[in-house]
Amino acid sequence: MRIAIDIDEVLVDFLGAFLEHHNRNFGTNYRREDFHAFGMHFTMTEDLETIVSRLHAFNDTDEFKNILPMPDAIEAINRLAENHELVVVSSRPETIHDASREWVTQHFRGKFSSFHFSSHPHVARAAKQTKADLCELVKADYMIEDALDHALPCAQRGIKVLLFDTPWNQQAEMTLNMTRVHSWPEIVDVIEANKI
After folding, report:
1. Hey, what CATH topology would domain 2-13+69-193 get?
2. CA 81, CA 113: separation in Å to the nearest integer?
3. Measured between alpha carbons, how far is 108 from 73 in angstroms, rounded to an integer?
4. Within the chain, how many helices (H) and strands (E) appear?
5. Residue 126 has pLDDT above 50, yes or no
6. pLDDT greater than 90 at residue 74
7. Could you tell me if residue 127 is left (phi over 0), alpha (psi between -120 and 50 degrees) or otherwise beta?
8. Gap between the Cα atoms of 145 and 162, Å rounded
9. Residue 116 carries which DSSP code?
10. Taking the domains of the chain in order of start, what are their residue ranges?
């Protein structure tokens, strides 16, 4: 099978690392569990321009480059790569595509056959493909994702979605082709049993 895998909040806890950086540098006290909607601007009190500026600045730090993978991700990716083709499908901005490839290669060397970057649901970009478009293009059987804005269109197109449990996707009712998962070991179990 071909499995498409998101980066942020699936392979890496980007939000947690960014919030730790932001809290330390700007005197805030944001917590991951406070984010009940996909998009930082729905929770953070700073204006969108400030948030984006601080995100770009964070992306240039060693902290960004040295974020560790999610718990159990390395072992799970190694196991899945034994029998499946893995591809990255992410909506990370173009400014960090190279850094994203480098990070994935550093932690998961040789496990992903290709990288595909889509448009972000909250950033208008003309003529960019969605994650659902990219999953269809690469003929993904599964998509491992945390954001409903990406997960639902994939599921509607017949791609099996493993929705990584986060505070911002709790309002989701599982639809046809969607299963909520809580950890990488659970993801491996679901895929190996082909449970959805």
Report:
1. Rossmann fold (3.40.50)
2. 10
3. 9
4. 8, 6
5. no
6. yes
7. left
8. 6
9. E
10. 2-13+69-193, 14-65
